[in-house]
Amino acid sequence: MAHPRARREDLDVTLHHCEIPVDEDVVRALVTEQCPQWAHLSLYRAGAGTDNTMYRLGTGLLVRLPRTADKAPSLRKEQRWLPRLAPLLACRIPEPVHSGEPTGVFPLPWSVYRWIEGDEVGPATVSDWAAFGTDLAAVVRELHGVDLMGATRTGELSWYRGGELRACAEWVGRALSDCRAIVGTEIDVDTLERLWRTALALPEPSGPQVWLHGDLRPTNLLARHGRLHAVIDFGGLSVGLPDAEHAPVWDLPPEARHACRHAIDIDDSTWVRARAWAIGVAASGIPYYQHSYPAFVAECRARLQAILTDERTS
């Protein structure tokens, strides 16, 4: 479920205050105590993200542990909803097989999933970016078309990215100012701020609320045989408006981005709001992770540059 070739620099860093220390001994103790049937399996660090760290268990399992207490509810959410969503989706998604309980060695819930074979999405693993964008569009359309099964935008299924842009105006404004102070003239933050304000001036979307993955960045997509194979990390799963769901297309090459937009038939207003979400999330990531997660900062910078390139060439 995680990328099998995780970058070493992403594995051993502390990203947040109050992060819970985890190492192989901690994970081995959790598995031995709560999953003795798997205690004999090999174990090694397999990946890390902004919210979780991951260990591969044997050849067929993945252990996922939240970095901080406020990330833990996302695992419970996945354990509850992914088994209900999986039969309704053609694309493979994570399959929880054990819900780990807090213990003395690790005070938070944790989870075990089936391992999903796949490669990190990139030029070495995707052979046709236009086809990849069409594949991604099919996943988005299918997820957004799934019945809500009684779920509502409350509690664990309410996340800012499924809400209205105006509710984020204050913190995005601060993020753009902080970003400008860091990047200087390397990135045209003035143009990004203008694009953000253009979206704020639009009417808010009035369409129905849908299921949202919440973070369809390339690092949460797996490729196989050159095509999209699986979507992982549903920690941002929520119910809400779909505009922000399209924001990560600016993390993909233009061929994929334009194919995805065409296949979903995204109208101009939705596209402008999606771009604004892409700006807000990336601009906030640069100051937050500037000293702790250089790979993530590089992703944010690349996204903002892609937005600016699109603006110049449109």
Structure description:
- Helix 4 (169-183) crosses helix 7, helix 5 (189-200) packs across helix 7 (268-289) and helix 7 (268-289) packs antiparallel against helix 8 (294-313).
- With 314 residues, this protein is of the alpha+beta class.
- It contains 8 helices and 10 strands.
- Mean pLDDT is 93; it is low at 1-11.
- Helix content is 39%, strand content 14%.
- The chain has a 5-stranded antiparallel sheet, sandwiched between helices. Strands 6-8-9 form a 3-stranded antiparallel sheet.
- It comes from Micromonospora andamanensis.
- Residues 46-277 form the Aminoglycoside phosphotransferase domain.
- This is Phosphotransferase.
- Pfam families: APH.
Topology, element by element:
Elements: H1 24-34, E1 43-48, E2 52-57, E3 61-66, H2 72-85, E4 96-100, E5 110-114, E6 119-120, H3 129-145, H4 169-183, H5 189-200, E7 210-212, E8 221-224, E9 227-231, E10 238-240, H6 254-264, H7 268-289, H8 294-313
Antiparallel strand pairs: 1-2, 2-3, 3-5, 4-5, 6-8, 7-10, 8-9
Helix pairs in contact: 3-6, 4-5, 4-7, 5-7, 7-8
In short:
With 314 residues, this protein is an alpha+beta fold.
| The first-level CATH class name of the largest domain | Alpha Beta
Number of domains: 2
Structural class: alpha+beta
CATH architecture of the largest domain: Alpha-Beta Complex
CATH superfamily of the largest domain: Aminoglycoside phosphotransferase (APH), C-terminal lobe
Q: Shape from CA axes? A: globular
Mean pLDDT: 93
Largest sheet: 5 strands, antiparallel
Give the radius of gyration.
19 Å
Q: How far is the N terminus from the C terminus? A: 37 Å
Order of strands across the main sheet: 1-2-3-5-4
CATH-assigned fold name of the largest domain: Aminoglycoside 3'-phosphotransferase, Chain: A, domain 2
